[in-house]
Specification:
alpha+beta; 6 helices; 4-stranded antiparallel β-sheet; elongated
């Protein structure tokens, strides 16, 4: 599933192409995504309105339109946004198509149908079920170590599962949680409440550094991630632990281990990330 760096890469690529363009038409070829698409609402809110910005909140894209409306797009497991000339042959899983006033089309393609295309009226965003309970963004000044230390006190859950909980921090995802913990030399299995304020400062720096580098590299392409320009990410060449079970740790030379934690694969160095 695309994580924060991949979604941020898509946002930047998409913004270059669509900001300032108006939506001239909407075609819903198949409503059956993770959340059923509402064609009438989508057309009523989108058609005739100019795109004024493309934002990211957690792993959601928000395409801001005139008059305060927005399109909420979630790529899910296999979703992809593609820009194409009008009239180009449509692909099997092109489920929702936005015709732009410059003659191009923005196509939402999703083979597994876990994505979302939702139209928001002005004022809907703060109370929308997908957005209202999200935690802080990990890039920028909102990732405050003192606040994270305070909210993690007396919690016994493992550190890595805390990082993946979007009620506290949004968008990190499994790959980048493993990488940030390896950078910070912290065990993914430690009770989160056992971290000192100093360790939270170290971890906050590691999270920012990992995600910033991944965004600069265009994300991590492990299988089928592409941005709207058709580019793949190459952060995979920098992965220190994720997907490297049995390989030598770049710091100590010991073997990287893989364990399943809360249903997700966790990669770590037992020597550098001692409990």
């Amino acid at each position: 599933m695309p994580e924060l760096p991949e979604v941020e890469t898509v946002r930047r690529s998409l913004a270059r192409h669509v900001v300032g363009k108006a939506i001239a038409a909407v075609v819903v070829r198949d409503r059956r995504l993770r959340e059923i698409v509402a064609p009438r609402r989508l057309k009523r809110i989108a058609i005739g309105r100019r795109i004024v910005a493309v934002r990211r909140r957690a792993k959601y894209l928000l395409v801001d339109l005139e008059a305060g409306a927005s399109l909420l797009l979630h790529l899910g497991m296999s979703g992809r946004l593609r820009l194409a000339p009008k009239g180009e042959r449509r692909r099997t899983h092109d489920h929702v198509i936005f015709g732009l006033d410059d003659g191009r089309e923005l196509l939402f393609n999703d083979p597994r149908r876990f994505g979302r295309v939702v139209a928001l009226e002005a004022g809907d965003e703060p109370t929308h079920p997908l957005l209202r309970a999200l935690g802080v963004e990990p890039l920028g000044g909102d990732l405050d170590p003192r606040r994270l230390w305070a909210v993690s006190q007396r919690r016994r859950r493992p550190l890595k599962t805390f990082l993946l909980d979007s009620h506290f921090i949004v968008g990190i995802g499994n790959i980048y949680a493993c990488e940030a913990l390896a950078r910070a030399r912290l065990s993914p299995f430690r009770p989160v409440g056992s971290l000192s304020l100093g360790e939270w400062r170290t971890l906050a720096r590691a999270i920012r550094a990992t995600l910033t580098r991944a965004v600069a590299d265009g994300g991590t392409t492990l299988k089928d991630f592409f941005d709207p320009d058709g580019n793949t990410g190459y952060f995979a060449t920098r992965l220190a632990v994720y997907g490297r079970a049995g390989a030598a740790c770049g710091r100590c030379g010991g073997p990287i281990r893989r364990l399943v934690q809360a249903g997700r694969a966790t990669f770590f160095c037992p020597h550098c990330q001692r409990r």
